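One chain given next:
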Amino acid sequence: MEQQAEHRLNKKGARHWHILTLWLGLAIIAGPLAIITHEGGHFFAAKTLGYSDVVLHHASIERGISPLEEESLTDRGIISFAGPLITLIMAIGCCFCIRKGNKSIFWIALGISTPLRNLASAAALIIVLAGKEVKGNDEVKVAAFFDISPVIPLLGSIAVLLFTWGYLLRILYHRKGVPGLLVVLLGIVLGNVFWLSLLGPIVLP
């Protein structure tokens, strides 16, 4: 659909900025979708494990009540792992779709947006290497679950970010150059800001 829209715009001799406006809109949608799917991974994991009163918020979840008298480390680990797993699957899935020839700007924007939260892993890694404790980070919780150093999943998270961005940003640059890069990145930022500060708290308070 997006490619057809671009084709129609080009056929009608529309200006370059018309297509960039279309890209901006698609990137704005991709930002919130990446957040929702990540948190949705946590949400469905908790529901599958039998937690009650699980609540999905716009940028987090409430696990609700554990089916056990005391929440187990296994359950916490599975729930923590589910979000990054969805992020990984989506990032690889977007790259795979584009590799197979579907170079839709939506897939590129979604692929860039999906591992955006992995930037927090870089900050967490610095804190861990400084010998300090990190709280609230999914990868650190996963490390506790598997009884491994948090450096391992944090480096994995950063590697996913660098690979995905390196691959997709290069494709994006070849399509529309610097203007295309700036428009898509601006759209992702606007989409995240709009979702986290305005629409998200209304739709999923």
Summary: The CA atoms of residues 112 and 165 lie 6 Å apart. The radius of gyration is 19 Å.
